[in-house]
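Let us work through a complete example step by step.
Step 1: write down the sequence.
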Amino acid sequence: MSNFLKYKLTAIVCSLTVLVMIPLFNSSFNAPESWERWKILTWDDFRGVAKPFSKWGAVIRSDVFLEYDSLENQYRAYSAMDQNHSWKSRPRDLSDYLLNHEQYHFHITEYFSRKMNSILRKGNYEEHEVAGLLEKIQREKDQLQSQYDEEGDHGLNWGVQRYWEYKIDSLLSSFRGIGGKLVDEKDIKIYLPYTDAKKRKWKNGVYDMDWYWLEKYDMMLSLSIIKSEAISTIEKPKEPEDGVEMYNYAWDSLVVLSKKDDSLAFSKRVTAVDTLDHNIIEDLWIKEEGRMYRLSAEYPIRADAQKGFLRIVNSYFNSFEIVQNER
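Step 2: predict the structure and record it as tokens.
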């Protein structure tokens, strides 16, 4: 084939490519914005054309906006995504895990819209002041979006991704009426991002136990409240030379690998490995007059994910408190 024909065929192919790409650019890059308010996403919400040569599977474009309520004479913030400029890559690269990662980008934007509304409700701002507040909120949003991607490597670090889901859910729940706290009748509090945790009660003749649990983030978080006057007779044993203590209760046998003493009668943190189910179990046992509390977290064994799961566990355990209210 002569060089002339080669050049001619190359020119034809390039022209056809340009003709094919023009509609794509018109349908995405030059398409009008199409904003959809915060909701649970599906892949159908990503209508834009994927950015050429991008290594990412999907990208969501979202922001915080203001509208004016003339009846209440007040500005209100809301979050929305631009469907025409949010895109997904090839179908084979899509997954529920990836969609969930993008959903939490949208949740971050929703959190800042709620934060903006909280600020607006506390003051009577002029229009230029509201504009300045919105600009500040948008900067904070962009910073947290970047931190979310950087720490979790755009969702590739499974454990850190789950930690950020826990963190973002906690931020969202901070604007709910009860703030995600389970409150027992004897003034104890424990924080969960969701207040719809399951509950079960049972008695065995000696012990009366309430059990709350939440299954999310590929782990289970739970709180057991064991009630019995017999608990008050349990004494703190002497510590053996090897640093390991053994407590034998009627309902369990417990080996303590590390401990944490505080102002309560005593509290102990236990780490165990379930080699059959390939899970790690973290327990924090706290003894009080007539009660024993067991805070528990169970998550998969995977070295590359453990750091993220431990951040959830520590946050959950540290949220426990016994409130001394005046009667």
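Step 3: interpret the result. The longest strand covers residues 279-288.
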